[in-house]
Specification:
Layout: H1 10-16, H2 55-65, E1 78-87, E2 106-115, E3 130-138, E4 141-148, H3 161-168, H4 184-192, H5 197-203, E5 218-219, E6 224-227, E7 233-242, H6 251-260, H7 264-275, E8 280-289, E9 315-325, H8 330-334, E10 347-348, H9 353-369, H10 451-459, H11 462-476, H12 482-492, H13 497-507, E11 539-544, H14 550-562, E12 566-571, E13 575-577, E14 585-587, E15 589-590, E16 601-606, H15 612-628, E17 633-635, H16 640-645, E18 654-656, H17 663-673
Parallel strand pairs: 11-12, 11-16, 12-15, 16-17, 17-18
Antiparallel strand pairs: 1-2, 1-9, 2-3, 3-4, 5-7, 6-7, 6-10, 7-8, 8-9, 13-14
The structure holds CIS-heme D hydroxychlorin gamma-spirolactone 17R, 18S.
């Protein structure tokens, strides 16, 4: 496996000049003056007052006082990594975008994943939409695909975005709850803005509690345009498909992880990259001819609608590999500035009113967040190609533009820098014909809010449907206002009557009387049950004490390694566990510092410990919890008595070593399956 440090691309080389390693250096002020004392401020007498003259104290403290910048108003909590995008096949027929012309072309990328609602210090596993923003550093300038892990959105027109966000953020009078949509104002917004129906179905599904960033899809959401060399356009939607499949947490697990390891997702991304398990996503496009714009029973400009993959197939055209962690989270992850308006020739916009509004918002927000118009000069935001224009000055300007001339047109500099024609790579906006009266109405073609919400419901597997009912019940069950709870149930009856009735019963309101949408179609691509399953990179907690059976355990651990399964040795305390023969095993985590919710599976070897009764109880708790979360559990021959002491029952996903010569492989197959929904847990 490649080592992260060897993954240098043109953007890395660009960044290199800004990296500073202070190790082994002498301490200086920002003026470069060597500092003689960093322990004591300058005082008038040993026990006297500090004096103003102490410029080192003042500089250090002033800088510290200004260390914070405003967090993003949405998507504040995020984590990012570098990587590269590689094209599989030429897209020349459809787009003139330079990075999509020649197969095997590699383009450096920077990707930031985020939650939407929580503050920067909130938890990773909140039920929320995940941001999936990619900056492609192309030779024609930066192209940003600022997407989410859900293919649609809550609202149809950008003017409603501040209302949506005000409703979902903590309520203003008491700033509660943090990073959660389970409160009155969010559901009041939902019920009174029924265009949210489809997105809320996704949000109540397993999609909003991804297992990690590596097993999560990404979508450009809006309809964009591809434009080729001849000026011919196609409508396009963008997709990221994780090669490891789409996998989620279960809600109880997600809530517990929030307390046990609030950095769960960022830790997974960081450690996977450090370990060489690089996240890989394939890049796909759905395309529709301009002539077919009105052939669908939804409006392709409506961001609350998806294009079912069975009707408009996803063409896979490349892959993205994230292969290097950031060097400094503030400099890179925090200061990166995405903008859906950062495009390259060959990629263009449509009149989707949500997209049009975003084209305004992103630069506007960077101006306040990054303190002025020169944020494009921050290393992470700089393109890898040259920049020449007549823009000048502003806070923290880095460039030193030389010369007398800073205007267009001019004769003193030979009218340079000069615009380029389309042939020379100049960006020419697609000449879409536009006609109409100025008006503030919503297109009637945006009026159907329930057909695709029902399509989504129809496409879910029985466990997925149960999770949706459970999460609605949890979220709406936290709404204090009975009228709002009733409105929500009365709204979602239009998706499915049985679903809304179950929710009504759970949240203590009247059963709804309305009727569900008549849609009977399904879209199998929407169900995670149809995803891929692999054992690779999944993490098994090995519960083990002294005196284990070395031959048996060694064989199982080797099988894990052969199939790329990760394992963490969990003992009574850090140090080592010993068997009757062979080398000891190093304990990676003491059992009292970790928790079953942090593992994909557990392998119960058991053994002796200093406080045997306590260790046995801790292992039993691990089994109970993993069992409740439908996880595969492997029981070594020496682990039987601990298993018997637990609440777990023999059945799906419980694999015993006793009498099973193929235990290792059977267990790995169970690990790949990840959850055993047909297990009876109550
Ligand atoms: Fe954003 N969004 N958004 N958004 N968005 C921001 O920009 C906005 C929308 C998305 O990791 C902000 O730099 C409006 C859809 C991501 O840095 C802000 C509307 C989608 C990120 C903003 C939307 C997104 C943002 C806040 C309604 C999926 C994080 C900080 C029209 C396609 C990017 C910032 C990162 C961030 C505005 C809706 C994705 C305020 C007005 C739809 C992934 O400008």
């Amino acid at each position: 496996m490649d080592k992260p440090s060897s993954n240098k691309n043109s953007k890395d080389l660009h960044l290199e000049q800004f990296r500073v390693n202070n190790e082994g250096e002498k301490l200086t002020t920002n003026q470069g003056l060597r500092v003689s004392n960093d322990e004591n401020s300058l005082k008038a007498g040993v026990r006297g007052p500090t004096i103003m003259e102490d410029f080192h104290f003042r500089e250090k403290m002033t800088h510290f006082d200004h260390e914070r910048i405003p967090e993003r108003v949405v998507h504040a909590r995020g984590y990012a990594a570098h990587g590269e995008f590689e094209l599989y096949e030429s897209m020349k027929e459809f787009t003139k975008a330079g990075f999509l012309q020649k197969p095997r072309t590699k383009t450096p990328v920077f990707v930031r994943f985020s939650t939407v609602v929580g503050s920067v210090g909130s938890v990773d596993t909140a039920r929320d939409v995940r941001g999936f923003a990619t900056k492609f550093y192309t030779e024609e300038g930066n192209y940003d695909l600022v997407g989410n892990n859900i293919p649609i959105f809550f609202i149809q027109d950008a003017v409603k975005f501040p209302d949506l966000i005000h409703a979902v953020k903590p309520e203003p009078h008491n700033e509660i709850p943090q990073a959660a949509s389970a409160h009155d104002t969010f559901w009041d917004f939902v019920a009174n803005n029924q265009e949210t129906a489809h997105m809320v179905m996704w949000q109540m599904s397993d999609r909003s509690i991804p297992k990690n960033f590596r097993m999560m899809e990404g979508f450009g959401v809006h309809t964009f345009r591809f434009v080729n060399e001849n000026g011919k356009a196609k409508f396009v939607k963008f997709h990221w498909k994780p090669v490891l499949g789409i996998h989620s947490l279960v809600w109880d697990e997600a809530q517990k992880i929030a307390g046990k390891d609030s950095d769960f997702h960022r830790r997974d991304l960081w450690e996977s990259i450090e370990r060489g398990n690089y996240p890989v996503y394939e890049f796909g496009v759905q395309m529709i001819d301009e002539a077919d714009e009105f052939k669908f029973d939804f409006d392709i400009l409506d961001a609350t609608k998806l294009w079912p993959e069975e009707i408009v197939p996803v063409k896979i055209i490349g892959k993205m590999t994230l292969n290097r962690n950031v060097s400094n989270v503030f400099a890179e992850t925090e200061q990166v500035a995405f903008h859906p308006g950062n495009v390259v020739p060959g990629i263009d916009f449509t009149n989707d009113p949500l997209l049009q509004g975003r084209l305004f918002s992103y630069i506007d927000t960077q101006l306040i967040r990054l303190g002025g118009p020169n944020f494009t000069e921050i290393p992470i935001n700089r393109p890898v190609c040259p920049i020449h224009n007549n823009q000048r000055n502003g806070y923290s300007r880095q460039r030193i533009d030389v010369g007398q001339v800073s205007y267009h047109k001019n004769s003193l500099a030979g009218n340079t820098p000069s615009p380029s024609t389309a042939k020379e790579g100049g960006y020419v906006h697609y000449e879409e014909k536009v006609e109409g009266r100025k008006t503030q109405v919503r297109s009637e073609s945006f009026g159907d809010h329930f057909s695709q919400a029902r399509l989504f419901w129809n496409s879910m597997s029985p466990p997925e449907k149960q999770h949706i009912v459970d999460s609605f019940s949890f979220e709406v069950g936290k709404v204090k206002n009975r009228d709002v709870r009733q409105q929500v149930v009365d709204m979602f009856v239009h998706v499915d009557k049985a679903m809304a009735t179950m929710i009504a019963d759970n949240v203590g309101v009247n059963r709804p009387t309305g009727e569900q949408s008549g849609v009977t179609a399904t879209s199998p691509a929407l169900s995670q049950a149809n995803t891929k399953y692999f054992p690779q990179t999944l993490n098994v907690g090995v519960l083990i004490g002294d005196g284990f059976n070395a031959d048996e355990v060694d064989k199982v651990l080797k099988t894990f390694t052969r199939y790329g399964v990760r394992y963490t040795i969990i003992g009574e305390k850090l140090d080592e566990v010993k068997s009757s023969k062979g080398p000891p095993l190093t304990v990676n985590a003491a059992i009292f510092t970790t928790d079953p919710v942090l593992y994909d599976s557990i392998y119960v070897v058991a053994g002796t410990a200093g406080n045997q009764a306590k260790f046995n109880q801790q292992m039993t708790n691990f089994i109970n919890e993993a069992f409740q979360h439908y996880k595969p559990i492997g029981i070594a021959t020496t682990g039987m008595s601990i298993f018997k002491a637990s609440n777990a029952k023999e059945g799906p996903g419980i694999v015993f070593a006793t009498g099973n010569p193929e235990f290792g492989k059977t267990f790995v197959d169970a690990i790949a399956q990840q959850r055993f929904w047909d297990r009876a847990i109550y």
